[in-house]
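Hi, here's the filled form for the chain we discussed.

Project: internal
Contact: R.S.
Residues: 99
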Amino acid sequence: MIVSYFAVLAYATATNDPRAVTLTELGFGVIAIAVGTMLYGQRSTTGLRSVLTVGAGSLVAGGVLNFGAVLTRSSAVETLSSLLVFLGVGCYVYAVWRS
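And the returned structure, exactly as it came back:
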């Protein structure tokens, strides 16, 4: 899924096709939700449950808000989505670093 995302992203960047751009935005949301869900499932295998829970919740919320940003074309919603995804990835990196 991630490889397909980057292939469509490269195509969208090269051609500036609005449908491809929208597809990459939706794909980003799907990937964020999928990674957040997998991260939530991993939280029982480590002692950093709260960090992984926050990371998983942030990724899922960021993915859902990304769909809202696509539908509303709101830059504020898009920014919040990006911040939540960065928080989720940061929590994951912290958990890996601490384990």
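Let me know if anything looks off before we file it.
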